[in-house]
Amino acid sequence: MSEAFLSALRHTLPAEALVLDVERLRAFECDALSAYRALPLAVALPGSEEDVIAVLQLAHAHHIPVVARGAGTGLSGGATPTAGCLLLGMSRMRRLLYLDPLARYARVQPGVRNQAISEAAGPYGLYYAPDPSSQIACTIGGNVAENAGGIHCLKYGLTVHNLLGLRAVTMEGELLELGGTLDCNGYDLLALLTGSEGLLAVVTEVTVRLLPRPQLARVILASFAEVSQAADAVAQLVGSGATPAALEMMDGATVRAVEDFLHAGYPTDAAALLLCEADGTPEEVEADIVQMSRVLRAAGACELRVSGSEAERQQLWAGRKAAFPAAAKLAPDYYCMDGSIPRAAVGRVLAGIASLSTRYGLACINVFHAGDGNLHPLILFDANRAGELAKAEQFGTDIAALCVGEGGTITGEHGVGIEKLDGMCAQFNAAELGQFSAIKAAFDPQGLLNPGKLIPTLHRCAEYGRMHVHKGQLPHPELPRF
Amino acid sequence: MLTDLQAQLRQAHAMSLPVRIVGAGSKQGWHAPQQGEALHVGSHVGIIDYAPAERVISARAGTRLAEIQAVLASQGQMLAAEPPDFGGHATLGGALATGWSGPRRPWAGAMRDQLLGVEILNGQGELLRFGGRVMKNVAGFDLSRLMVGANGTLGLITEAHLKVLPLPEVETVRVFELPQADAIALANRLCAAPWPLSGAAWQGGLLRIRLSGNAAAVATAQQQLGGEPDVERNWFTRLQAMQLDSFAPPGAEQGLWRLSLPQTCPPLLADYPQLIDWAGGRRWLSAPLAAAQTISTSARSAGGHALLQRSQAGWPAAPRNPSLLALEARIRRALDPRQILNRRQGD
């Protein structure tokens, strides 16, 4: 069966677009959720939409499962191969097809890097707003599949808010042309495909909206003597008239780890820091900085620093961007969670995490997108100590339960993939999960495209996954994670 | 109320009887009539939760948009997509089902962009929740946003959670006397630069640019952009409410089309009277019904589409790609296996 498929595949794609030997296949056996690995049957590297259609039609005819992959930077195992699958690597489709500076959009192939779009748009004073921390490497096709976020989505939205059109191919090889204008005709399949984690179709072209680069951005660093004060400040900032371009929080343990790692000049005696950015016209920024400073002081900030230049702004952000590598120095292993909660619950959930930390005897540090209510607790442990891994896993499960209990969600931006299949059982009932399966079947009746991801089978609600980092060996250590 | 709706839907499903979802009926005359018994959602009302500091409001589907907007305004906030409230009658459920957004759409996002989560009854009467009250949520397929603009064919929205934004401190309108082509070009040039914009619409030789933001930013922009003050009061409010003359019911043999086009598309079918919104992205066009084919073809070849929105001749569907239509039919059956919800008359 697979021999016949491979033979037909050799006739469909040129030899340089195929990876068949085991040694080279190893490079594709996992994404950034590296605890989970499997060898694909083969890797196809299509160079065009026609290639994608031909390969999918062939795989469909031979009943071979297919997993699409961008840069492999995803944290939830969305691109982990299933055993015996064809892995569709989109890296060769990396051309920027068209950029219209007046109409403010770019048409790009799925393998184009997120940051490359803003680089191409830069000379026109434009940029692509969603900025996931892996943006120097991650591809726009993967961003669409995961509905990627980033630091600035508080003001500028997620991937789904910044797309204008998509071309995508179903498992049967049918081309879908979606969107294109600001108003859609028929169902909003562009929104449905965004964040569908490669289960519904393979994206072959993305039209992104470009925004004019704000004239000015300034950031405030605010330090607090109590975590609860910082958490309250977050809620008060969001409730005020100004919308921060970014609003990030670090607890004291993270601040000290960052200082040891980078010497960013952060106040190490603070229990928590907030980084609050304003952007826009100079008048808007000035007014926002005044208002935000007032709110921060009223919430009990003991010190405020405001960037006076672009260099100072970058310097204030540098520590935040180094938080994950710094955390990796604190313990042999850590788990990174990805819960999302109402902003008013930030203080409560952080207090809950602190008491869980005491109960489990494991440290947990927090550095996260506070303005969006998107937590990334890092549970520190040592996998070489008997029972500690299981304890850390249970700790993580309890944090996820805290988030769901506050009306939040098990994943704010990393996706479900294979990592959070069990969490899906906590968040959705059987009828809702059944509805996801029915949507999947409407696109892919045979269940061949990225099987085993996103939708848990109903009997599979036992274990809860996480990103596992051992001895500071981050998957893709060259990428910042924040 | 919810259990009544659920019981009615379960029964309709069991008997394969079509039902038509009715809110306040504010958009009668704006969409094709549907088959079956009416399922009245208009009394399933009430704001369930509103936390201004959270910038999230949750309300039942029958709640009037006008009520929601008034409550938000009292706290200095707004529904930034500016859905039309059709004289104060439109309901939240109807606004989401149709998915219409107002003049602020290119800058603040569409109705679907502001939706965080929904509770729905699907075509089998199952009560389901997708999304939630949080800003970021990527758990499962995005079935909440899929409901927006589906015209009730994928489920009955029973309640919704929406993101809201602060009202701008100041809003002002500048008017430029320009022919259509120049107006479209200027509006797009302004969009491509970091101005505090919240509206760009052209009608009758006048381009209106709406500026929103804090007082200093708007004053600076106004000074640099030039233009004249608007002598028409509340023009953008009437545009949002669809109360300008352009939206009046057309006479016999006439139609009102809604064109969705690339914003920079040069004047299209310029011989027919038009109201251009969204810096060129949406154009309302009045023309004889006999021109239907020409309008549809022109919009498609310009990279968009045209929908006949008001006429005495019904609501012919815009031509679509057959494989996309087949996929949509399968999606519809996934949520409503017997296709009982809001089936068009004649389907």
Protein described:
The complex is a heterodimer of chains A (482) and B (347). The radius of gyration of chain A is 23 Å and the shape is globular. The two termini of chain A are 44 Å apart. Helix content of chain A is 34%, strand content 19%. Chain A is of the alpha+beta class and 482 residues long. In chain A, helix 8 crosses helix 10 (282-298), helix 8 packs antiparallel against helix 13 (346-360) and helix 13 (346-360) runs antiparallel to helix 14 (388-405). In chain A, a hairpin with an 8-residue loop joins strand 17 and strand 18. Chain A has helices at 2-12, 22-25, 49-62, 114-121, 140-146, 153-156, 189-193, 227-239, 252-262, 282-298, 310-321, 323-327, 346-360, 388-405, 421-427, 430-443; strands at residues 18-19, 42-44, 66-69, 86-89, 96-100, 105-108, 126-127, 163-169, 175-179, 202-209, 211-212, 216-224, 246-251, 272-280, 303-306, 333-336, 364-368, 377-381, 467-470. Chain A is built from 16 helices and 19 strands. By secondary structure, chain B is α+β, with helices and mostly antiparallel strands. In chain B, strand 6 and strand 7 form a beta hairpin. The two termini of chain B are 30 Å apart. Chains A and B meet through strand 9, helix 7, helix 8, helix 10 and helix 15 of A and strand 7, helix 6, strand 9, helix 7 and helix 8 of B.
Largest sheet of chain B at a glance? 8 strands, antiparallel
Q: Name the helix and strand elements of chain B from N-terminus to C-terminus, one letter apiece.
A: HEEEEHEHHHEEHEEEHEEHEHEEEHEH
Structural class of chain A: alpha+beta
> What share of residues are in beta strands of chain B?
25-35%
- Report the strand count of chain A: 19
Oligomer category: heterodimer
Shape of chain B: globular
Helix content of chain B: 25-40%
Helix content of chain A: 25-40%
Radius of gyration of chain A: 23 Å
Backbone structural class of chain B: alpha+beta
Catalogue the unreliable spans of chain A. 462-472
- Name the strands of the widest sheet of chain B in spatial order: 13-10-12-11-15-16-14-17
The strand order across the widest sheet of chain A is 15-12-14-13-17-18-16-19
Residue-averaged pLDDT of chain B: 96
Largest protein-protein interface: A-B, 94 and 85 residues
The shape of chain A, in one word, is globular
